[in-house]
Amino acid sequence: MSVLAAWKRDHYSFILSISEEEARVKALNEYLSTRSYIQGFTFSHADVEVFRKFSGPPVDQYFHVVRWYRHIEAIYDGSSEKNDPCKLQTSKGKRMQPPWTPPEGTKHSRLCLYNSLTRNKEIFQPQNGKKVTWYCCGPTVYDASHMGHARSYISFDILRRILRDYFKFDVFYCMNITDIDDKIIKRARQNYLFEQYRENKITSAQLLEDVKTLFSVKLNETTDPDKKQMLEKIQNAVKSAFDPLQAAVQAKLPAEEINRCHEIMLEEAKDLLSDWLDTKFGSQVTDNSIFSKLPKYWEGEFHKDMEALNVLPPDVLTRVSEYVPEIVAFVKKIVDNGYGYVSNGSVYFDTMKFDSSEKHSYAKLVPEAVGDQKALQEGEGDLSISADRLSEKHSPNDFALWKSSKPGEPSWDSPWGKGRPGWHIECSAMAGSILGESMDIHGGGFDLRFPHHDNELAQSEAYFENDHWVRYFLHTGHLTIAGCKMSKSLKNFITIKDALKKHTARQLRLAFLMHSWKDTLDYSNNTMESAIQYEKFMNEFFLNVKDILRAPTDVTGQFQKWENQEAELNKNFYDKKAAIHEALCDNIDTRSVLEEMRSLVSQSNSYIAAKKSSRQMPNRLLLENISSYLTQMLKIFGAIESDDVIGFPVGGNSQNINIESTVMPYLQVLSEFREGVRQIAREKKVTEVLQLSDALRDDILPELGVRFEDHEGLPTVVKLVDKDTLLKEREEKKKAAKLAKMKIPPHEMFKLERDKYSIFDENGFPTHDAEGKELSKGQIKKLKKVYETQEKLHKEYLQMVQNGSAN
């Protein structure tokens, strides 16, 4: 026997002599830690003998024994008893891998969407794998797009991007443009007739008479409270133009002055005159081109607004005017299927016939609204609810599929005579033409549920003879303006262009992301201030991380050792990613997502601050991973359009060059040079140079969109920020400083300067300096002026508090 074999045998003899199994296993584990049993390991008879003593697999805590046991077990012939030593290979030969058990893992969340068809969150399951077919109701283009439009189209853009870029669905998105509609017809006629009225060079005396007569008639006719209120406001505006024109005519002022007053009067009374002219002459407008000019212009403006809001264009855009033949064919088949009827050249949908069918159900979305005549008439349009039109229906709940055209309305040929499409049929025919008999998602505003979407469903299911034209109906919530419904009568009608003059597209989108897509969103100063602060909070984090990443290091220096702080932040990072995924699966809850992102940034900021306070470099790769992830999420949401890996683009999304990478090296050199100059100036006590250095930081660089942040004992942080943002910050700081000063009562002002004064009178006015010496008459005279100025400022502040404007 060799020396090695004898040594092994002695150890195994000792191990075998231990009767208690746990002690024996422990001793074996200690022995096995001294020898190799993996590569080239040959089992001896001693190994086999010890192996046979095991009643079962050893516990995991004895690592070496577990590995040793599995190696022997792997070559053991299971058909024989374990105590048969012949069945164990004790020499080199073919070995088998030990059995492997997969981890249990966690349950995967699935995307759920709030489906208006069930009024519940439902698991989202497209009909065809990852492909998603989606139809969205587009605008009726007869006026400027407003924030109500933005509510729907930004929200759907966010949902679409998340489905496509986060959940990786293949989204096919179709949207329509309604360019044939009662509102368009009426507005087009009004615009045309008003321009004719202007071009006819009517006399100022006649204009005054027309306006005066119109107002008296209109005020008497109007009973709706909102319309009456709006009319009274118009009357006030017109009166401010009426009186000067009347005075100019009566005084026989020069023609130039009368014409100026005349034009002002025309503009102020435009809405009133247009409505009157349409009532009087609307039926005489017959040129179809008049009705296409208006929607073509406003469609162009709508697309510009959507581009400005960074809303993705649809994959397919359908216009009603281009689908009239398809609409006619669609209506014809509904009639052929027995769900429509012809009456006096118009075609109506038979709601009773449809609802009585076992295969169908009318008003799936809002069944409780059936019979709501006000809603139904609004859906039919102002030009389609006259007594003669309503009398053509079999039931008040029936609605027009095809309308016979009256004089003053555009018309197209059909089997039932000259006419035009009804509103609801337009979407059905166009969506059916593109997406077929069933789509995954149909989207629109909350106010479209009944009758528009319920009628769409009925028509389409009557055409296709199915009951699943739409699988998931998504409706965006209402938009209010500072708590009130948006309306021209309340003077709170805000166009998208007006909104973009006050806030950026990103800020508007962040405001939408901070609210549920299906709930009411209040567009107010508070809402926008929250969005602005969120943007600033995220941007500061991105700028700080960029500054850290710019710090010079060698190739190996970027891989830093992880301590407990890094491990904890990384754990929080993955916890937040999991929470964000859960929130997105839960009806795309972007509000919770943004809060989780905010929390992650707060944790990262705390980590950075802790590292800096201990003069340690934060972990570059960890912060880069976190900031890249947050940037990617904001890109998915449409809040960042650029290709930058980290943060918001400098200079806006439309920049073709990367300003930051171009100018930052020069700014870094300037920063280091400035820091060197400041250090020398401090040592030599040259205050003028320090003041120049501060002026560079506070006054000159902000004008260029550059921020230098000085930190005691640390390198200056260099940040590229939007110029307007920096200038606004500077103004806000000045205002805050002024307000803070105004808050101080004059009798407290000098008491805050104990380093200058020691004794004060009953009004808080100083009488002696810090050394107890009485102030001179000249000093008192100067201080009294300061005191009187503070009295005025504080009085102004108290007035602001009373008016509620002190914030």
Please sum up the structure shown.
InterPro entries: Cys-tRNA-ligase, Cys-tRNA/MSH_ligase, Glutathione-S-Trfase_C_sf, Rossmann-like_a/b/a_fold, tRNA-synt_1_cat_dom, tRNAsynth_Ia_anticodon-bd. Helix 8 (225-250) packs antiparallel against helix 9, helix 12 packs across helix 16 (423-435) and helix 20 (525-550) packs across helix 22. This protein is 54% helix and 11% strand.
Give an overview in words:
The chain has 807 residues and is of the alpha/beta class. The chain has six domains: 3-87, no CATH class; 183-292, no CATH class; 323-476, 3-Layer(aba) Sandwich (Rossmann fold), CATH 3.40.50.620; 526-644; 663-736, no CATH class; 744-803, no CATH class. A hairpin with a 4-residue loop joins β1 and β2. α16 packs across α17, α20 (525-550) packs antiparallel against α23 (620-636) and α26 packs across α28 (777-803).
Keywords:
807 residues, Rossmann fold, 5-stranded parallel β-sheet
Q: What is the C-alpha radius of gyration, as a whole number of Å?
A: 39 Å
Q: Biggest sheet, in brief?
A: 5 strands, parallel
* Order of strands, widest sheet: 5-4-3-10-11
**What percent strand?**
5-15%
Mean residue pLDDT: 88
CATH architecture of the largest domain: 3-Layer(aba) Sandwich
Cofactor: Zn(2+)
InterPro entries: Cys-tRNA-ligase, Cys-tRNA/MSH_ligase, Glutathione-S-Trfase_C_sf, Rossmann-like_a/b/a_fold, tRNA-synt_1_cat_dom, tRNAsynth_Ia_anticodon-bd
Domain tRNA synthetases class I catalytic: 124-531
Protein name: Cysteine--tRNA ligase, cytoplasmic
